[in-house]
Amino acid sequence: MNTLALAARFSSRPDPAQCGRLEVIRDSLVARIAEAEREGWLGEVEGLRISLAGAEDKLVHMDRQTSGGTAIDLGMPGIAPAQSPQMEGTASLAQSLDDQQ
After folding, report:
1. Rounded alpha-carbon distances, angstroms, from residue 87 to 62, 83, 91
2. Which of 6, 13, 30, 46 has its CA at 20 to 30 Å from residue 71's CA atom?
3. Is 7 exposed, middle or buried (0-12, 13-18, 19+ CB in 10 A)?
4. What is the pLDDT of residues 45-62, one digit of tens each?
5. Which secondary structure element, helix H or strand E, spans residue 76, and what is its range?
């Protein structure tokens, strides 16, 4: 599988059930990077490092998903009682002025 295909594979949302498979892919990428460095395939090294970064990022994200996001019960919001409508125009202004005194 080429590097672009691997990068595309890592662009979707991670599935925690695939963690073991992704670890195998990560380990394979590490071995392929070492081989490419030994052989002097600099372009291949760069592409493999991009794929490796994507795989490691997915593993971190999966670890966060499975390592205990705790739900917090915020309860149900209260509903304020309905207020009576104010008189329109100057009547509501007059009432407001009376209330201030």
Report:
1. 58, 12, 6
2. 13
3. middle
4. 999 999 999 999 988 888
5. none
**Cα Rg for the chain, rounded, in angstroms?**
30
pTM, to two decimals: 0.53
DSSP secondary structure code for residue 89 in this structure = T
DSSP state of 49: H
What is residue 6's predicted lDDT score, i.e. its pLDDT? 54
Distance (Å, rounded) from C-alpha 41 to C-alpha 74?
55
How far is Cα 99 from Cα 81, in angstroms, rounded to an integer? Answer: 21
Residue bearing tokens 């125009």: 89
H/E run at residue 47: helix 42-66
For tokens 């691997």, the residue is 6
